[in-house]
Write a structure and sequence with these properties.
mainly alpha; two-stranded antiparallel ribbon; 234 residues
Length: 234
Amino acid sequence: MKAVYAGTGASAHKLNLLAQWVRETVAQCKNGKIDVIRFIEIDIPNIVPGFYVHVEDDDKMKGVRAFISDDPLGMVVSESIYESASNGCMFSMEIILHEIGHLFLHHQYSSLSLQSHAGSYAARIKDTGTANDAEWQATTFALCVLYPYSELRMCKNNEEIMLRFEVTRKQAERAKRHADRLNKRELSRVFDTEQRWLSQVFRSLPQNGKATTESHGPSEQLSLFKARQTINLS
């Protein structure tokens, strides 16, 4: 999966702060678990007016699980992913939250030229770290929403993660790696910087279903992420 450059870098703890805000002020959580379907169908439209959700037949999606569309602004999700997320499947919920991460963090790139085959674009992303990788940002956001760091950090091993979050061992191992990354960066956090970044995210949220940002070049639909939405579970 090729990296997609994000002009604004974000640390894991910044993304966790955004996820924490989502869980505490936007989403409906019961017993610590987020209702992802309610989140995208009711809660997101409350802060992003005009946002819609369209469930599409798997055959018509041709292998694509979900993606963000910018005209009109919304999410298109395959029927199988939508149904399994409704039944609490962590894999499917992560895919949906991954796309919401793109909505919050990268919708402004609909007005940017992010052609991966362009020489100037290739030069921009060369040797770029994960902090500017849009796919990494979206996946980290999704994991932070599904596995609240305040709870995850209390788990000493995979077995405790499996019990606390009711997940498989493979999912627990993935969550443990995520927690380890956050733990390693705990001492390097700059709280004022994180708060300023979060305020910037708030200010840049789409208004009336449209991205509010200056035009910086040829239009590139948010379906840019359509071909890259498959989450690497390794």
